Amino acid sequence: MFYHVKDLQYNARVSAPDPRFARVLLEAFGGANGELKSAMQYFVQAFSCHNPHPDKYDMLMDIATEELGHLEIVGATIQMLLGPVNGKMKDVAENMEINKMMDGKAAKENFIHQAFTNPQFLVSSPGSPTLTDSNGNPWCATYVSANADLTVDLRSNMAGECRAKIGYENLIPLTDDPYVKETLMFLMTREVTHFQQFEAALETIQPNFPPGVFQTSPKYSNLYFNLSKGKDARGPWNEGESTRLKEEWQYIDDSLQEVRSTNGLVDRKPKGTHRTEKEVQQMDKKLAKERSKEVLSSLPEGAMSWCSYQDK
Fold first, then answer.
1. R_g over Cα of the chain
2. What is the pLDDT of residue 195?
3. Per-residue exposure over 237-268, b if at least 16 CB sit within 10 Å of its own CB, e if not
4. 39, 92, 217, 306: least CB-packed within 10 angstroms?
5. 50 is annotated as contributing to ligand binding
6. Is 18 marked as binding a ligand?
7. What is the pLDDT of residues 128-145, one digit of tens each?
8. Exposed (0-12), middle (13-18) or buried (19+): which is 229, by Cβ within 10 Å?
9. How many CB atoms lie within 10 A of CB 280?
10. Are 154 and 41 a contacting pair, CB within 8 Å?
11. Rounded to an integer, what distance in angstroms lies between the CA atom of residue 166 and that of residue 195?
12. CA 240 to chain CA mean position, Å
């Protein structure tokens, strides 16, 4: 159940109208990394963990609801930045700017230029935000990632918060309005907060790497193929110990020869790892049973109800 509180979570303000920045800010409203995408992603993800992970359900719903509040903050800011556009467009009889098009070529070209700052602000929804990105592309449900596996979804959310954070970081220098900068700084900060919350939630699920259930083959999990010519770079991504599986990286300098000499890698023997194929298969079976039981045991028998109502 939702209800709306008319107070914004953050006191959004603007110093003066700025329709051009309003267009840019649409990225945070209806863009691929905007607030609506985040809200819908966490909202959808929450359903699959309602029974097996009620604590994660609670967290995802809380953050999804906060993101809807952030969508409201961005929308309110865009509305204020558009200033009197809506009112001027309503005055179609006498004072509408389009009448100036009759005053000469220069005036006509200037009006067209202003309109193409974002035509939708003048035509489709005069003086109001739209669920599009800054180029007018409509918001799309394919922005949402929900895999019904928390070890995947939480990582996806962490990456999404990073993209949203850098989006606000790039928006802040584009406005000179100190009030708008403060609002964007608040929203950017909350992205970092949510990243840490998702990260902490992921750490409560053990094991959580690799994501999902199946483990990885020790024959291929620590191979680095040098597939470029020129000066080669070495670092912790291709030498030393791998970060999670703690295997020794195997640097394959002649990738073509390696593939040909091992029958397309099929006959390759594991090197630099303590894991064996047998251990991997045992872990696959063990984890599959645990995760399956985790979900199935949380399902009630007989008729089901999503929640129980209690007087408080």
1. 27
2. 98
3. ebeeebeebebebbebeeeeebeeeeeeeeeb
4. 306
5. no
6. no
7. 788 999 988 999 999 999
8. exposed
9. 18
10. no
11. 13
12. 32
What is the phi/psi pair of residue 189, to 5°? -65, -40
- Is residue 182 marked as binding? no
> Which has the higher per-residue pLDDT, 123 or 51?
51
Mean pLDDT of 54-63: 97
| 177 is an annotated ligand-binding site residue | no
36, two tokens: 């609506």
> How many residues are there in the chain?
312
Residue 70, annotated as binding a ligand: yes
Q: What distance, in Å, lies between the first and last C-alpha atoms of the chain?
A: 16
Listed by start position, the domains of the chain span: 17-202, 221-296
274 annotated as ligand-binding = no
Contacts 24+ apart (CB under 8 A), 255-259: 255/225, 255/226, 255/227, 258/225
The span from the CA of 111 to the CA of 119, in Å, is 11
Could you report the per-residue pLDDT of 201-224, keeping only the tens digit for each? 999 999 999 999 999 999 999 999
Cα separation, 35 vs 69, whole angstroms: 9
Of 115, 118, 151, 146, the C-alpha closest to 27 is 118
The CATH code of the domain at 17-202 is 1.20.1260.10
Report percent pLDDT > 90 for the chain. Answer: 75
161 is annotated as contributing to ligand binding: yes
Beta bridge partners of 86: none
pLDDT (average), residues 109-127: 52
Q: How far is CA 277 from CA 167, 225, 266, 282, in A?
A: 43, 22, 13, 9
Residue 234, CA atoms < 13 Å, CB-side half-sphere? 8
67 annotated ligand-binding residue: yes
The answer to the question of whether 27 is labelled as a binding residue is no
pLDDT at residue 237 is higher than 70:
yes
Encoded tokens for 142: 């394919």
Q: Cis peptide leading into 210, omega within 30 of 0?
A: yes
